[in-house]
């Protein structure tokens, strides 16, 4: 139950990432990605520096795992999302992001030998269907009119990045200290993202990030999705595995819808509300374990 609560909080924070990202989307995508990781690094450094020194040998020995975690989950997942929004619609992005649980489950079955029972698979299908229903407002016309482009190809990379990250968390994260690993991964992410952001600044000039709203947005992105959500997600994945954890990502459209209603004064239709109930029911069904036989089994 504790792991599910952590994953629920992660989904709420990630939904805030989408809403805040929409508010400050005048900034270039990799500029947002760089400053959020820079802020996160400065916040976590005092907490994790001692752990970095204490586990220095572990980080060196496991450098491939650390590099993989840093590039997939910290540097490029959100960067790809921000970049894709420059070329495609939020509907396309949201639908493709809703595919992450299914892709993660398939990869977990292949590489981690995880299995879901029939009830859990039904929950996965319901949560995915409900997420798409919320995103498209129940309109088949929206689905038929989807036009895939460069942005959608970038979103495929984002889906792949988060799937790989979740699997790496399950395999390797227990080797590293919580705060020290974040310090190292964020340092790597900053090194990788800085030259890409510099290209944006060279092409269009250094953006005006010092407006109060943009500063507040970057602070949120740097502290909550980049730090708190990653810690919660890592702990949740370690407890229940990437298959069940990933299903919570289907709650993102529901929380984004609620956040847009509260903070962006957007309207919510009855169709979206009913779709949200389907998503919640699907997530509940996937994670509900009433007996030992209903647990995720392993070969």
TrEMBL record:
Gene3D superfamilies: 1.10.3730.20. Pfam families: EamA. The chain crosses the membrane at residues 31-49, 65-87, 93-112, 121-141, 153-171, 178-201, 213-233, 245-264, 270-289. It is a multi-pass membrane protein. Residues 2-135, 150-287 form the EamA domain. One of its GO terms (cellular component) is plasma membrane. It is found in: Cell membrane. The keyword Iron-sulfur does not apply. The keyword Lipoprotein does not apply. It comes from the Bacteria. Keywords: Cell membrane, Membrane, Transmembrane, Transmembrane helix. Belongs to the EamA transporter family. This is Permease of the drug/metabolite transporter (DMT) superfamily. It comes from Salibacterium qingdaonense.
